[in-house]
Amino acid sequence: SDSEIAAGRNILIMGTPHGNEPAGREMTLKLMRDLAFTDDPALLDMLRKATVLFVPTPNPDGREANRRTNAQGIDNNRDHLNVDTPEIQAIAGIMEQFHPDITLDAHERPRDTGNPDIEMLWPRNLNVDEELRALNVELVQDYMRPDVEAAGYTTGLYGTPGGAGGGDER
To answer: What distance lies between CA 25 and its chain's CA centroid?
Structure first.
């Protein structure tokens, strides 16, 4: 039930809030399918302990029009504080109801930008507990980036050089 999901461990996985970044949606749908049909004992054990919530298309109007913004011309990714758009109101409702332990919000960009294959970042909102922020920095720097680079991809930190992860209030 919804109340059991909210009381337990759960993970929220969202496709991109930008309609012109379709890979997040496709990743979400593929992962949903793969988890539904898995016979991997480790994944099945994880699924017994936690619920995975999916929002494949958090910007359906933008996805349909293949544009970054929603039908109102608003970038949903910039609305998480104001919560003005119907799309972000729906996401806020999910967050309020289920209080996910982990949230994944997928983005992409064209490869020909000269940027790394994958950029990562820890929470940078000033309201994040400093101990939690430090754990996230360690996760990204000591585990995720080395593993992704070992798999043959280039990595970087998302955001303005020198300012990435430094307490941006957005």
So the answer is: 11
Rg (CA), the chain: 17
Quote the pTM value: 0.77
Burial class from Cβ neighbours inside 10 Å (0-12, 13-18, 19+) for residue 30 reads: exposed
Which residue type does 56 have?
Answer: P
Q: What is the mean pLDDT of residues 126-131?
A: 84
66 near 20, Cβ under 8 Å?
Answer: yes
Positive/negative CA dihedral, 34, 37, 39, 41: positive
**Distance, CA of 121 to CA of 10 (rounded, Å):** 21
Average pLDDT over residues 72-78: 92
For residues 71 and 64, is the Cβ–Cβ distance under 8 A? no
The secondary structure of residue 8, as a DSSP letter, is S
Q: Strands 102-105 and 50-55: what pairing?
A: unpaired
Q: How far is CA 102 from CA 87, 126, 146, in A?
A: 20, 18, 21
